[in-house]
Amino acid sequence: MAMTGSVQSDSPKAGGARAGPILVPELPLVEFSLACQNLASPARDRKPSSMLQVSVVNTLERSLAAYSCTEIVEGTRDPLFLTGVTFPPDYPLCEDTVLKLTVYDVRDRSAETRSFLGYASFSVGDLLKEQQLTLSLRTSDGTSAMGAVVVSRLRMGEAQDGETEQVAATDTTGQKHTVVCESPEGSVRDKDSGPLMNAAEGTSPQCSAVFRNPVCKVYSFQTTDSKWMLVREKMAECTLSFHIPKQLLKLYIQEDMTRIQELKGLGDLSPHWDNLRKEVVIHLGQAISSYQEVLTELSKMGGTFFKPSCCKAEKYLDFIPINLHTQRMQVTSPKQTETAYDIITVGAPAAHSLGFKNGGLRRQLVRFEAEKKSFSTTYQCIYFSPEDTAKARGVLASLSQLQPLIFSLADQLMQAAQQRSAESLKEALKTLCDTTERFVHALKDKLVKTALLALHAARPDYVTDCVGTNGSPPREDGPALLKRQNSVPPRVDYDEEEWDRVWTNVAKSLNCIIAMVDRLQESDNEQAVSPEPALADVITSHTPDADGWQEKIYPLVVTLKDCVMEVVDRAKKSMTFVLLQEVACSLPQGLLLRQRRDTVFSQALTALSCGFITRLNAGMQDGGFLRQLHLVGVLAQFESLLSTYSEEIGMLEDMEVGIADLHTVTFKITEAKSSDVVDLQPKVCGWRECYTVEVPLPRCMFKLLPAEVRGQLLHVYPVLFNVGINQQQTLAERFGDISLQERINQKSLENLENYYKSLSDNSPSKCLPSFQMQTNLEELLGTLSQHIASRKKKNVEILWLAGVICRRLNGIRFTSCKSAKDRTSMSVTLEQCSLLRDEHQLDSEHFSRALDCMRREGCRIENVQKNIKCRKYAFNSLQLLAFPKCYRPPDGTYGKAET
């Protein structure tokens, strides 16, 4: 299926990005800044206003491909452009490649009315040799024009004797500034390069482990001490956008197929419950067919790595996150180590194809639970809560894992007995005991017993005086039903102690094995010791011979297996009956709601997996972060800019549930089988409400991890903060209801405080990174609490504080709006410039100009181009009046209707 709006990997405007083997691209081989000198003066009635466009000349085809533009600089004939030019390492450049620089006089920013001033061209080889070029401008007919362009291959840093050259240029205030140009030999590769980011050695350049199609931008900004810093933006698509959803769809299908078999295995039911079972099986079959159809369509879409915003309502793409990208800002400034900041941008996880006429997940789940209770009253059956059904799935999954494991360990015990290996016998017995203990513990829950009694009451041979309407038992809660089972015994012999006897037999049979192993070992050592009195009643009275260990243990192992099988059979049926009631309570609405939840969760989990891998890669050398990951888990902070009005309420309700469901997700870092790209892709396993994402690392990286992190389950603590900023939020604040936003923010604040408390209790403060801003975390949390309680309209300070706290806690940052394209771009660029100001001393006079640079020619405008084939943010002048001022794009960068 073709996906309209996607960007081809060889699009020149997309930075010339080819499908490259990198997670975050290497330091480009060609990176330079631009300045002009002595440009022609405009008419007397206005100030100079100039910009410069860079194009790549294809000499063979005699064509010109626009590559990038600088910002517009006003008020000087000698402009120094803060926006530089950078080429990704996989861009097809060679020394003979010719670059054309065209200078324009911009008469009207909003209308982008401009006039040609002149052009100059140079080859990449010239720049590599000279490091700095001064090129005279020429007119379109090749004659001389007024002015020149200065091209400097740069790495910003402090001047060092004998190693630097200086270029003088003028900023918007008319002051002269010196840009320090360092030789390329002094440049270094990105510190974040590694096996995760680069394709496996020797593989095709088209192969990539996690991220592809990078877009790179570079800027030079002035600090408060008149020095200069180099800032790079890097944005890349994530191959997980399709990889994770396809795995989830397969797991959904597998789980539903298993559920059908379990329902059929329930045995005879009363006519009422048998009819419900048939209906559930039919609807589960339809859900499986629907998911298989979606999976088939997705399998046809090879070579695509992101879902553009214009496809958000496509049915077959509903499980794919919208416009998922990772964005990294790297800062190199004088006397500071290179620093990187990551943000994951993604459209709000929501089921767009299902619509929002009836609200989103939160509202529909509340309604669904009310319907379940009503159903329970009408049909007089036990009501099982969402926690019960989640627990039932967990018990079923545990049984599926533990039963074959117990049987396998029992066979290993038999093998050790056959070999008469005392040490092997002891080790096998210990493992068998531990696993059986886990098995018994999983079943010692009141839910299992209650469900067994409910299932028994649904059998066709249940006593007639207990039967209610439609052949179902009278509605009673668990204790009342248990009491009735005692007072009115059914025709089939069963009482409330029956289940206790069944699973207790497992422990007794294991005790018999333990005692027999002890006696065999004692006999073999000629140390005849009488068995303990407590076990005498379960062990045969004769003394075993020195030979025949296997013969003595065999019948006890068979008994253990039989007991385990009986427990598994009864427990599976009881838990399956719980799930039958969950689905049967609201057909077909219940399954449609589950499909919606599956869809939203798929988008949320994919974004989370992208963020976790990015954060793990950045923290591989950070012992504090790895210790925190093991002791507490990782914080995932989602920032949302959705309004609480119209359809976006439904999107926010979807997103709230989808993000909350991530708390059941765990990550496990494993060693990759090989360095092949396929083996470096994460793998999802588990079932609904309990998924684990396995993240394989190459052997060389896996060995660097502390032992307590390798192969262990690492937990996630998701929080969501939302502040609507657009014109629809204005309507919501004046005429609507913003209680949803207030509740989400308050709940997330509590979760954030709980995470910080857990971290403080379990991990020393030295685990946390240091920042220039010295406000401690407790003060920041207190300030955030005050802002949330203030109920101030469009209080974007909440988002800023939450982001700061997240970074201070080594967390993962996500930013979302409806499509992660327009409002998200405003938020990301604002956050980046705020970090430059607070952490890297960006000159306050340059703050607005730096913000405009990033919004006009940075990675985010390229993201808009990728999504809708237009370099315009989807705002109009009237809408922007409702936006906080710091979220408004520069003139000339907006105007197209939202997509």
Characterization of the model:
Strand 10 (164-170) and strand 11 form a beta hairpin. The protein has 3 domains: 28-187, Sandwich (Immunoglobulin-like); 241-333 and 340-374 and 588-868, no CATH class; 401-584, no CATH class. The chain has a 10-stranded mixed β-sheet with strand order 12-13-14-15-21-16-20-17-19-18, with helices on both faces. Strands 2, 3, 4, 6 and 7 form a 5-stranded antiparallel β-sheet that branches. The radius of gyration is 33 Å and the shape is elongated. With 899 residues, it is an alpha+beta fold. Helix 6 (422-443) runs antiparallel to helix 9 (498-524), helix 9 packs antiparallel against helix 11 and helix 12 packs across helix 14. It comes from Paramormyrops kingsleyae. Belongs to the inositol 3,4-bisphosphate 4-phosphatase family. Residues 9-137 form the C2 domain. Pathway: Signal transduction; phosphatidylinositol signaling pathway. Keywords: Hydrolase, Lipid metabolism.
Task: Provide a quick synopsis of the model.
By secondary structure, the chain is of the alpha+beta class. It has 23 helices and 21 strands.
